[in-house]
Amino acid sequence: MRKKITAAATCLAAGAAALLFTGGPAQGHGYSQDPMSRQAYCANGQVTGCGPIQWEPQSVEGPKGFPEQGPADGKICAGGNEGFHQLDDPRDGNWPTTDVKAGQDFTFQWTLTARHATTDFSYYITKDGWDPSKPLTRADLEPEPFLTVPMNGQQPPAQWTAQGTLPEGKQGRHLILGVWTIDDTANAFYSCADVTF
């Protein structure tokens, strides 16, 4: 009997340690796959030197309420998480980009590893003249999202997609910030995607 109890206690302790070291299942949530986000490039190995985000692309969670609230300027792409600061590093403007066309219809996609009741998905884009060699700030973004998909508290599927139209008149390199706002928590998920029009 004592051996069974000891074995059970050992298994529980190992399980608890695994949760501590892996961050546990509660840390898995979601990130943009199309346009391809910085964390997705890190996770698939196309970009190196990413730190822990390469194993946790779904975990860029920060306070909701963007742009009035949320992560501080310069820390937006990492959702304000110091552990993911590599996402805020502009890499001298050398992040890989997704090729897009101004005014084109586009299928936006997120991979969700934990599905939450959702307020909406919103997409912001940088202003003309944005400097891709500097960390992203609110002043770099157009003041209103070019696309907002209301979810009214519904839970999206694991592979969420929505049709939208990219802004007219954009040229060259830009950044699209996707914000997935959770309905029943104080947080949102942030995903920066570099694009070339």
Automatic annotation (TrEMBL):
Supply the alphabetized keyword list. Monooxygenase, Oxidoreductase, Signal
The protein's name: Lytic polysaccharide monooxygenase
Q: Fetch the SUPFAM superfamilies from UniProt.
A: E set domains
Domain Chitin-binding type-4: start-end pairs: 29-195
Q: Which Gene3D superfamilies match?
A: chitin-binding protein cbp21
- Which InterPro entries is this protein grouped with? Cellulose/chitin-bd_N, GlcNAc_Chitin_IntDeg, Ig_E-set
Q: Which organism is it from?
A: Streptomyces boncukensis
Please name the Pfam families in this protein's record: LPMO_10
